Amino acid sequence: MSDIEIPESHPRYESLLTRHRIEDGVEKGITSKQGLIAQGRGEAFDYLLGEKTTESADAAERAAAAHFLLAEHPVISVNGNVAALCPGELVELAEVVGADLEVNLFNRTPERMQAIVDHLREHGAEEVKGLTADGRIPGLDHERAKVDADGIGDADVVLVPLEDGDRAEALSEMGKIELVIDLNPLSRSAQCATVPIVDNVIRAVPNITRHARELKGASREELEAIVDGFDREAALAAAERAIRDGDT
Ligand code: PTJ
Question: How far is the CA of 81 from the centre of ligand 1 (A)?
């Protein structure tokens, strides 16, 4: 993974390993250089959250799993950061909930698109969408507007792991259910999400999969009760309290 060995006894072992994954992603042409800055921002919030999944984030992850299982056409949007951080976990989640994987980039280049598609395939993905780009998200004038018409264009539920906020807003204006993972509860994407998940993608993605596995046998009514019982405002407030007051 990297030529630098980190001893497992290091108090910030996980965090340092994560940094190396992002660094590696940049070297492989998967992650953008801006992705390094985004990672640094995320780390600061994660540090304040105690680098753990809070109770309210876990409830959001369960609600996200219920949305996935209720969806007709769920899609997981993949950018250069998540592709580097948890490719195998994304593929596994897609399999468990029957979602499509679609690469969608802010700093879109044909080379990065292809590198991420190949990387996901190396981690077990069969079909990866995003290269066709025959659909558009209305109201966006940058590269993130480009989507596959039969992918994000057609989705009813979209998982959006860490990104800049304007696509998240545009997707919710299209009436899509948006599940957003972002360590900053004040970010625009978290603020406009149907389900804001304030947690590190590294922990959030496998935990959504775990909940989805547990909920697989649940009835529609049970899943709807989980979705209806989730309070997005309370989740955002709990995350902000955790960060400001250490109240985790
Ligand atoms: O691969 P691309 O070209 O699509 O670009 C992706 C990035 C992430 C570089 C781009 O979307 C970007 O610039 O994002 P921002 O505006 O820096 O926002 C990233 C958000 O994700 C911030 O609110 C961070 O706190 C948060 N974040 C960073 N790392 C993580 C995270 N949230 C969850 N888990 C993380 N590991």
Answer: 7
